[in-house]
Amino acid sequence: MSDRDDGDRNGGDGNDVEAELGRTKASSGGAAAERATPPRTPPLTTPPAAKTKARGRGETGRGDDAVPSPKSPSRRRDAGGGPAAGKPQTNGHADGGRPAAHRAKDRRDGHARPRRRRPVTVDTSRAKTSLEALKLSIAQLRWKEFPLGRRASCDIYWHGVSFHDNDHIVSGQVNKFPGMIEMLRKINLSRALRTMQELFPEEYNFYPRSWILPEEYQQFSAQTRVPKDSGGVANLTFIVKPDGGSQGDGIYLIREPGELRLATGSQAKQVVVQEYVQRPLLIDKLKFDIRLYVLVKSLEPLQIYIAKEGLTRFCTEPYQEPNQKNLSHVFMHLTNYSLNVQSGNFVHSDSQSTGSKRTFSSVLYRLASKGVDIKKVWSDVISLVIKTVIALVPELKVHYQADIPPGKPGPTCFQILGFDILLTKNLKPVLLEVNSNPSMRIEHEQEVAPGVFEYVPSPVDEEVKVCVIRDTLRLMDPGQNRPGHHQPEGSSGGGSGADQGEVITAKAGSPEKVKEEETADGLPSLCLKQVYPKYTKQFHYLCLVDRIATLFLRFLGIKGNMRLGPTAFRTFIRCCRLSNSALPMASVDILYIDITRRWAASTPDSREARMGLQAFVEAFFNLAGRRSKSSLLRDQVSSLLEVCEAHLEGQAGALLTTAAASSSEDRRSLSCSRAMARGSSKTPSSSSSAAANSRLCSPARRATSHDQRLQRSNRHGALRAHVEN
Ligand code: ADP
C-alpha cells in the first residue's frame, strides 16, 4: 500500500453495461486534476520512448497538491448547470426561510411544517487531489462546501492524505482514520494478514506468501531454496516491494534469494518479498488488475461498503510467464497505471470497455459472455475485502483510541480504501495491496502535441470515482439518523446470513443502457453496497484478533497510549488468572521481555520498548498454546479468549481503575527510569540515593522499580530469569 495516491489517471468511454454494476452510472460528470507525479525512473527496464515522455510530463506537471486548472466540459455541466444551478444551497427540505417566531407559532397552532435541514457543510480545504471529484459530489448533493475551511465546525472534513492533516477538529466526521496509512504500509499489511493466515490458513489464502526482509531473510532462503529436482518450487518467481513504496517504485522480480538487491548500513530499507502470481487471468493477452473502492464507514460497529463499479488497469506488453529474459519487463508484469502510461502502447480510450483502463463491469461483462460465473467472482472478491478489513480493524482500533480516546471530544471517522486485486487464470482473486489514499483524480495527462502535455477529462475515472465520493457523503450525511430521513437505497443494514451471491448484481445480458434508478431525493441509487454487518454471520468467527485487541485496549488504560507496559501486562495476566504453577509470574515477565524486545528490533525506526498490539497478539498466541491441548491455533486462541472474557466479566469497573493505575505506573516507571538515568549520569551519590529511594518505596513503588528493572534488562538485551514474582 501506499500513503500516496496511486496514480490512476486514465480515461475510458460511455458504453453502458446492463447491470447493477452499471447502474452506478450516476449523473456524475466532471473532471479533476490528478496529482502530477514527478518523473520517476521505472524500477525495471523502460523503453527510451517512455523516458522521453516522462521527461515531458515532468516539465508540464504540477505539484502534488495542485488544484486543477483545466476545467472539463462535464465539470462545467454539472457544477454549474446541474440540478443545483441557480438554487439556494439546501438539503432539499425547504422551509421557506420563515422567521423563527413564525415557525414557533406554526408549531403552537399545530401547523408544524417539516423543518428545513440546513445544508450539510463540508470543509474541503485539505482535500488536495480529490478536490475536483469532491466538488462535483457536493454540488450534486446540494451541500455546502467550505474550500478555505471555516471558523465554526463543519459536518464533514475531507482530508487528502491523513487524519492528521488537521489536528484541531473536535466534532463532525473526518474521511480518514488515524493509523490507516501506517497499517497499510506493505509490511504492516503483510503482518496483519499473516497473523490471520496463522489462525485461518484456508480463509486467508488470497494473500500471497510473503516475507519481510531483511529480518526474515533466513526463512525466505530456507523456504525457497529447494533442490530443483524436487519439482515445483524451483519454478517460483518472487516480487520484491519496498515498504512504503507506491506506483511500482523500486519493484523488481527475482527467481533466487541471491538476486535480492538489499542495501546495507544506513541505506538499508525493509522490503516485502512475495510469491509472484505467475498465471494471472489475461484479457487480450494482457495482464490486468482490479481497483475496487471500499468504504469503511465505522470501526465500532464495523460497517463496510463496496463500490459496485471499479476500474481495471492493463499492462501494455503481452504477458508471458516469467523467465530470466523477461523478468525486467515492467510493462509486461506490473499493471500500475503510472508506469504503463509511459509506454508507447498505452491506449487512452473513450470507451469503458477498451483501452488500457476500463471499468470492472465491462471486464465482467466480457467474462460473462464467455461463460464465466461472474457472481462467484464477485462473491469471492467481497469475501476477500471483508476478511482483509477484519484483519486491519484491531490495530486501527488501537490507533483510534489513542487519537480519540473515549470521553475526549473529537470527530468520528470513515475512509475510502483502494483494493488492488488480481484474478488468477482460475479466477481466484488475489490481494496485491490496499491503498489508504486511492487516487480520486478524474482527469489524466495527455500529450496533445509532441512534448506538450495537458490534463484532459477521463470519463472512466469520472464515472467510477465521483459516484464513490458522492455516495460516501450520502452515507455519512449527519441527518441520516434523524427521524423521517430517507435512507438511501443499499445503505440499510440488512438481514444476517444472507447469501453473498445476493450482492452480485452484474448481469450477463446485453450492454445496453439501463434507465438509471432514482431514489426519493432525485439522486441515483447508491453505488455502494453494504457487505458488513450484512454478512456478519459468515465472517464473525474470524474476529479473534479483534477480541484480543479488546483485551489489549482494556489494559492500556491511559489516554493516548498505544503500548502496554510490563505492569499492565502483569495486571492482564492477574485479572485473567492466567498465572499458575505452570506459568509463574517470572515466566510471564520473561515472555514480555522476550517478545517486546524482538518486536522492537524488527521495527528499526522504533526505540519503543513496550508492547504493541502485534507483540501482544504474539504473547497471547504463546499463552494459548501453553494452555490448550488442541493442535489448532485458532482453537487454542478461542479457548483462551473465553477464559479471559469470563474472568473479566463483572470486573469492568475495577478493571478500568486497575488498568489506569498500572498504566500510570508504567508511565511513572518510564519517567522514573529516565530520571534515574539522568541522575546516575551525574553523580554516583545521586544514583545511590535513587537506589535508596527505591528500597523505601511503597508496594506500588516497588512494582514501579520492578518495571524499571524489566525495562532496563529489556533495553540492554539481557534476559533475566530471576525477576521477582
Ligand atoms: P505499488 O504500491 O508500488 O503499486 P503493488 O503491490 O501494487 O505495489 O505492486 C505493483 C504491481 O505489481 C501490481 O499492480 C501488480 O501488477 C504487480 N504485482 C504485485 N504483487 C504481485 C504478485 N504477488 N503477483 C503478481 N503480480 C504482482
TrEMBL record:
Comp. bias intervals (Low complexity): 671-698
PANTHER family: TUBULIN POLYGLUTAMYLASE, TUBULIN POLYGLUTAMYLASE TTLL11
The keyword ATP-binding is assigned to this record: yes
Protein name: Tubulin polyglutamylase TTLL11
UniProtKB keywords: ATP-binding, Ligase, Nucleotide-binding
GO biological process: microtubule cytoskeleton organization
GO MF annotation list: ATP binding; tubulin binding; tubulin-glutamic acid ligase activity
Disordered: annotated segments: 1-126, 476-502, 671-725
Species of the source: Merluccius polli (Benguela hake)
Single GO cellular component term: ciliary basal body
UniProt keyword Transit peptide present: no
SUPFAM superfamilies for the chain: Glutathione synthetase ATP-binding domain-like
Family annotation (InterPro entries): TTL/TTLL_fam
Bias (Basic and acidic residues): 1-11, 56-65
Organism classification: Eukaryota, Metazoa, Chordata, Craniata, Vertebrata
Pfam family, one: TTL
